[in-house]
Amino acid sequence: MSTGTGPDQVNHRAQTVEAYRLWWQHDAHWYQGVAARFGQQAANDINAEALRKVALHVGQRIARRSGPLTGSGDSGKDLEELRRRYDECGDRMFPPELRNASTEVVGDDLIVLTLRRSFAVTMVKMAGSLEGYRCPCTDIHAGWSEGLGVTLAENRAESCLRDGDPACRLLMRVAAPAGPDGPVGAASAVVPGGEG
User: Fold this and answer.
1) Sheet holding 99-106, edge to edge
2) 32-41-20 Cα angle (round to 5)
3) Nearest residue to 122 via CA among 161, 94, 89
4) Fewer CB in a 10 Å sphere around the end CB: N or C, the chain?
């Protein structure tokens, strides 16, 4: 394979982005096929379950690479580290070419993810399956949280691109403020609470 210049040069970045688009298109058509054969609820449930498993795996990989979340005694600093890890999870699952997202720490226990573009919603819409589609965002966040070893007291969508809102605003409230033991729960139980 040529990596030089000229007409035979392969633009690997463009090919990677195209591969992502094709897999998302596959996913949207797969979802549409399950909905047509088994109903919209089954398609939503299977989609959310599959994405949560992928998100769990991503969260576990980030946790192994970054080490345990331990409290520094400064809740702002600890939540900022957790926010950074959520961003890394998002970047691993959804490259910037496919979404426009940012997170911020609000108060002592809340991380807010704002999603201004979602390739998944775009592809489901293009496949003709947006009607009845339930975004799996809270399931993804539950998987990331479990993988990172974090317990959430709240995990819900305040607004959603799927519903025509200008952005998804997703709330992830940590069960206990970061302290000497960090913002982690012993059992890593996550409260899904709502649709995304």
Assistant:
1) 99-106, 110-118, 168-174, 152-159
2) 40
3) 161
4) N
- φ, ψ for residue 57, nearest 5 deg: -60, -45
**168-174 and 152-159 as β-strands: parallel, antiparallel, unpaired?**
antiparallel
Distance CA 176, CA 171 (A): 15
Beta strands in 85-164 (DSSP E): 99-106, 110-118, 152-159
Report d(CA 146, CA 187) in Å as an integer.
Answer: 9
Task: Give me the pLDDT at residue 6, please.
Answer: 53
Report the C-alpha gap between 159 and 140 in whole angstroms. 16
Query: Alpha-carbon distance 128 to 40, whole Å?
Result: 12
- Over the chain (196 residues), the average pLDDT of each successive run of 10 is 54 81 80 90 94 96 88 74 94 82 92 90 77 91 94 95 93 70 40 39
In this prediction the pTM is 0.79
Q: Are 136 and 48 in contact (CB under 8 A)?
A: yes
